[in-house]
C-alpha cells in the first residue's frame, strides 16, 4: 500500500542515517558543551549542527511543512502542534550520554498530520539500528518486526524511566518516591539509560515491560509513540487518559493492564507543557 506520506517517511529514514554519521564522527571528538534550563540540561555544537542538517534537508523537500525541534525551541521558537503536517525532531536524544561518550544516543524524527502521529523514525547512532513505524503498517528495527511485551503482572516487570533535567529537591523527592513505590511492588528492576527515545524503543522491542516519565518533551516522545503503538503497546497520559504530546508526561507499556498499574502507582510531578513555555 502506498500511503500519502511514504515520501516523507523515506526522507526521514535517509536524513536520520545521515545525521547518525555526523553524530558517530563527533562522538569521539572534543565537544563544546553549554547548559540550557538547568546544569543537567546540556547542548553541544553537534546538537545544533545536526538539527540544522535535518531541518534544512526536509524543508527543501517539503517547504510547506511545519517543524518543532529541541534546539529551535530552546532558542525561543514556538512549540505548537497545529493540524498542518508537522515534523517533531530531536537531533540528539541523550545529549548527556553523548557528552560523556556513553553510547546511548539517538536521532528521533516524528511526523504528525491533523495532530495524529503518522510515522516515527529513531536511529540508534552508535549501534546503527533504525527503529521505525508507519501508522497501521507495523514497527521494525532494521528488518525485524517489533512486538511489545504481553506482561500484565507488575511483580514481573522490568520498568524503564528517565531522571530528566529538573533537579530541585521537591522534584527529586517525588521522582525517588515513585521509583521506590514500583520497587516496593516488587518490580524486577528499574533502569535509567539516559535517552527517553531509546528507552521507549526498547519497550517497543519487548526488552522491557513499561516506561514512565515526568518532564520529557514532545520531541523525545513523538517518533517512539508510533513505534510502540505499532508494536502492539500502549502510550498514554500518567492520569490514565489519552496521551497529550505536549503535556510532558507519559506512561507506556506492552499491555493496558500494565500501563494502568504503573499510572496508579505514580505521584504526579508537575513540569508544565511544551506548548505553554
Ligand atoms: C533528554 C534525555 C534524557 C531525559 C530527558 C530528555 P535530550 O533528551 O532523553 O534522558 O531524561 O527528559 O529531555 O536533552 O538528550 O535530547
TrEMBL record:
Primary enzyme class: hydrolase
Positions that bind Mg(2+): 70, 90, 92-93, 220
Matching CDD domains: IMPase
Cofactor(s) listed: Mg(2+)
Superkingdom in the source lineage: Eukaryota
Reactions catalysed, as given in the entry: a myo-inositol phosphate + H2O = myo-inositol + phosphate
Enzyme Commission number(s) of this protein: 3.1.3.25
Keywords: Hydrolase, Magnesium, Metal-binding
A GO MF label: metal ion binding
Database matches in Pfam families: Inositol_P (PF00459)
The protein's annotated pathway: Polyol metabolism; myo-inositol biosynthesis; myo-inositol from D-glucose 6-phosphate: step 2/2
GO biological process: inositol metabolic process; phosphatidylinositol phosphate biosynthetic process; signal transduction
Family: Belongs to the inositol monophosphatase superfamily.
Name of the protein this chain belongs to: Inositol-1-monophosphatase
Organism from which the protein derives: Heterocephalus glaber (Naked mole rat)
Amino acid at each position: 500500500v502506498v500511503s500519502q506520506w511514504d515520501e516523507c517517511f523515506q526522507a526521514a529514514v535517509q536524513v536520520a542515517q545521515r545525521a547518525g554519521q555526523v553524530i558517530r564522527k563527533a562522538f569521539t571528538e572534543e565537544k563544546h558543551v553549554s547548559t540550557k534550563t538547568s546544569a543537567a540540561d546540556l547542548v553541544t555544537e553537534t546538537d545544533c549542527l545536526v538539527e540544522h542538517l535535518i531541518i534544512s534537508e526536509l524543508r527543501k523537500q517539503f517547504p510547506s511543512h511545519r517543524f518543532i525541534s529541541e534546539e529551535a525551541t530552546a532558542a525561543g521558537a514556538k512549540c505548537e502542534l497545529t493540524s498542518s503536517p508537522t515534523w517533531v525532531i530531536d537531533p540528539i536524544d541523550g545529549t548527556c550520554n553523548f557528552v560523556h561518550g556513553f553510547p546511548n544516543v539517538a536521532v528521533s524524527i516524528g511526523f504528525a498530520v491533523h495532530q495524529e502521529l503518522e510515522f516515527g523514525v529513531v536511529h540508534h547512532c552508535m549501534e546503527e539500528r533504525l527503529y521505525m513505524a508507519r501508522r497501521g503498517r507495523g514497527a521494525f528495527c532494521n528488518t525485524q518486526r517489533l512486538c511489545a511485551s504481553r506482561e500484565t503482572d507488575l511483580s514481573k516487570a522490568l520498568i524503564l524511566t528517565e531522571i530528566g533535567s529538573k533537579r530541585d529537591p521537591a522534584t527529586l523527592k517525588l521522582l525517588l518516591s515513585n521509583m521506590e513505590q514500583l520497587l516496593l511492588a516488587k518490580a524486577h528492576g528499574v533502569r535509567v539509560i539516559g535517552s527517553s527515545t531509546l528507552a521507549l524503543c526498547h519497550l517497543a522491542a519487548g526488552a522491557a515491560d513499561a516506561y514512565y516519565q515526568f518532564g520529557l518533551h514532545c520531541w523525545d516522545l513523538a517518533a517512539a509513540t508510533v513505534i510502540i503503538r505499532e508494536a502492539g503497546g500502549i502510550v498514554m497520559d500518567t492520569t490514565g487518559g489519552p496521551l497529550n504530546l505536549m503535556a510532558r508526561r507519559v506512561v507506556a507499556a506492552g499491555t493496558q493492564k500494565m500501563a494502568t498499574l504503573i499510572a496508579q502507582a505514580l505521584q504526579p510531578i508537575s513540569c508544565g507543557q511544551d506548548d505553554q513555555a
